[in-house]
Amino acid sequence: MKIDIADGRSGKTLLSLEVTKDTSIMDIKKMHIKQKSYLYPTRMMYKLSLKDKALSEDAKIGDFETFCDGSVLYFKDLGTQIGWSTVFLAEYIGPIFTYLIFYLARGPIYGATQPTTTIQNIACAMYVGHYVKRVLETIFIHRFSKATMPIGNLFKNCSYYWGFSAFISYFVNHPLYTPAGCNTCLYIGLGTYLFGELGNLSCHIAFKNMRPPGTKTRVIPMPNSNPFTLLFNLVSCPNYTYEVISWIGFAIFTCVFYAALFAVVGGGQMLQWALGKHKNYKKEFEKYPKGRKAMIPFIM
Question: How far is CA 242 from CA 124, 164, 198, 203, 208, in A?
């Protein structure tokens, strides 16, 4: 049968292809690339209609009951792509160096002669330690369901992470920096941070074990023997919950406005991501736990 490939925005027919019921979306991508050599599979997306979700590369023409000779697939060019792992590494390595610039170069930047305080040293270990953990997770733990993302996200994400890192480090490492007035706040902040970091790591490992290597298998997230993963019973994205807890702990420990702002802004972004993933889980799995929320237990 012959099908048309139409532009997903204008609806204009771009090309026509000869296919069979056994032709997969990946096969269609390869045929399309032969006519448009600048394209590559991760840059291409097809839909049955403008309102439908993207079709899986493994889907076959025979899977679509209403598809017949003359039917249309809607194509979208996702633009230049870059690997998820590359973006993550750039996002997370940058803040390490940005923070350390203000920590190690206090003389040239502030004209400071006195050494850093114990609180500033611990704050540096907390901040840098978080991103070292994220780099190691990207290399050894994360299994991405999608191989790439638009290259524009690299500049947007790096600006966000690197920019906040500079602001936070500038004030935490300033010679006039004044820590929390009571030791209790310091202990609470450090304890909260460590709790969030351990929980976040535990959930990332749990997510890894839910997806066999080399597959895109998706299952209902469930807790394992690690007590930190019990939060899966209450929310779909406990890794985000724990990360927000971690940054709240850092903000309490340092008592720096930009650290608190980072926790709020980051928490808002992670809540948005969690709501989207939660919605997809409920749509994909009929028996998805009804009482489970997206990121905030019992609330949202």
Answer: 20, 20, 8, 9, 17
Residue labelled with tokens 């990121």: 295
Name the helix (H) or strand (E) containing 13.
strand 13-18
Looking at the DSSP bridge assignments, the partners of residue 285 are none
Whether 75 and 46 have beta carbons less than 8 Å apart is answered as yes
pLDDT at position 283: 92
pLDDT of residue 198: 98
CA–CA distance, 120 with 178 (Å, rounded to integer):
10
Q: Three-class SS of residue 191?
A: helix
In the chain, the amino acid numbered 150 is P
Amino acid identity of residue 298, one-letter, is: F
- Tokens 């706040």 found at: 185
pLDDT per residue over 168-226, tens digit each? 999 999 999 999 888 999 999 999 999 999 999 999 999 999 988 777 778 999 999 99
Q: Which pair of tokens denotes residue 173?
A: 């490492």
Which residues on adjacent β-strands are paired with residue 15? 5
CB 268, CB 242: distance < 8 Å: no
What is the reported pLDDT for 124?
98
- In the chain, the amino acid numbered 148 is T
pLDDT at 74: 96
Provide the token pair at 13: 């027919």
Are 41 and 108 in contact, with CB atoms under 8 Å apart? no
Q: Among residues 250, 236, 233, 238, which one has the least CA distance to residue 204?
A: 238
pLDDT, position 289: 96
pLDDT tops 80 at residue 131: yes
Which residue type is seen at 89?
Answer: L
- CA distance linking residue 39 with residue 153, whole number of Å: 19
Amino acid at the residue 165: S
Q: Is 255 left (phi over 0), alpha (psi -120 to 50) or beta?
A: left
